[in-house]
Design brief:
Helix content is about 30%, strand content about 25%. It is α+β, with helices and mostly antiparallel strands. It has 3 domains: about 55 residues, Winged helix-like DNA-binding domain superfamily/Winged helix DNA-binding domain (Arc Repressor Mutant, subunit A, Orthogonal Bundle); about 200 residues, 2-Layer Sandwich (BirA Bifunctional Protein, domain 2), CATH 3.30.930.10; about 60 residues, SH3 type barrels (Roll), CATH 2.30.30. Strands 3-4-5-9-8-7-6 form a 7-stranded mixed beta sheet. A 5-stranded antiparallel beta sheet has the order 13-12-11-10-14, with no helix packed on it. A two-stranded antiparallel ribbon has the order 1-2. The longest helix is centred in the last third of the chain and has 17 residues.
Length: about 325
């Protein structure tokens, strides 16, 4: 961990407390001049650090300034991190990156046209959430590629658990929920090499509602943020944790472990649900009624195993894999 990251960690642990340059130097085993240089760099990056003569330093704005350097230093693999003030969609931006010799992490303070599945939008107000895309060239085949969204959802849950101290749930296949409301959406997109038939690029968009906010009327009853956090956290720490968990799961890929962990966090298994989409009449926002079913299991490819509860296929089992299908609890 760099000197800057270590100093931020100390400041975050000792909120609103002045800490002398000598004490920081003693803790870190560095000279006071090295500490001063690191603090100056943090100030240049946007962190509000107050200096008081004969007293020391303290962090005024508690560490939620997005910092590409901080995130990169805390990610356990070579990567490039970009912080954007405003963009239409981090996924759209990532698709235009030509060189992905190392993974790119694109984070925006605000998205004007954040995208979700099935053409939906993702509300992305300035500085209220973590809006990020992980873009990379996979060095693996279809066995892992088919589970990328599953891996991303599990990585987000694990990151929130470790950094925020609360336990979210997964609504198949790509939404993360807290206390029955959505806190995160995931949109996975892939580019295929037509000559080889292999996937050449994977773009994983992740939007997490981090802080208290006023949601638009159409989603205010369905969305929430990371409320009742058990730990103080920053978006920098959360972003680094998501990236580390994501690539850690890929590097140590174990399908049975991933599916077991994913299923243990499911909010729908064993529940009566409604299926929507092209195969099950219209989407709910278009007046569709959906088809009643029971969520039974997640299969080895991440598909949702269901038992139909009505219609001509009542009591039949099926595996739902199509991107045209969403699932909602039948409340």
């Amino acid at each position: 961990m760099s000197t800057k990251s270590q100093i931020l960690e100390i400041f975050n642990d000792r909120t609103a407390e002045y800490i002398s340059g000598q004490e920081l130097a003693d803790i870190l085993g560095l000279s006071r001049n090295s500490v001063w240089k690191a603090i100056k760099k943090l100030q240049d990056e946007g962190f509000t650090i107050e200096s008081k003569p004969s007293t020391g330093y303290r962090l005024i704005q508690k560490g939620d300034v997005l910092s590409a350097d901080y995130i990169k230093e805390n990610v356990g693999l070579p990567c490039k991190v970009q912080i954007l003030d405003k963009v239409d969609s981090t996924n759209n931006y990532a698709k235009r990156i030509e060189n992905l010799s190392v993974p790119h992490i694109v984070i925006a303070k605000e998205q004007t046209h954040g995208r979700g599945r099935l053409g939906r939008s993702f509300y992305s107000p300035v500085s209220k959430g973590l809006y990020m895309t992980i873009a990379f060239e996979p060095e693996f085949g279809l066995d892992k590629s088919m589970l990328i969204t599953t891996v991303a959802a599990l990585a987000v849950c694990q990151a929130i658990e470790s950094v925020v101290g609360i336990g979210p749930k997964i609504k198949w296949v790509n939404d993360i929920y807290l206390q029955g409301k959505k806190i995160c959406g995931i949109l996975t997109e892939a580019e295929t090499n037509f000559e080889t038939g292999n996937i050449s690029r994977i773009i994983v968009g992740i939007g997490i509602n981090c802080f208290e906010q006023i949601f638009p009327e159409e989603i205010e009853s369905k969305a929430t943020y990371l409320k009742d956090a058990k730990k103080d956290f920053t978006r920098n720490d959360l972003a680094a944790a998501v990236v580390n968990k994501f690539f850690g799961l890929i590097e140590n890929f174990d399908k049975r472990t991933i599916l077991r962990e994913y299923k243990s966090r499911s909010m729908i298994l064993g529940e009566q649900i409604l299926l929507y989409g092209a195969s099950y009449s219209q989407m709910p926002e278009n007046g569709g009624r959906g088809v009643k079913a029971r969520a039974i299991d997640i299969d080895e490819n991440g598909g949702l195993v269901v038992e139909y509860m009505e219609g001509r296929r009542s009591r039949e089992m099926d595996v739902i894999t199509s991107g045209e299908v969403t699932v909602r609890k039948d409340i």
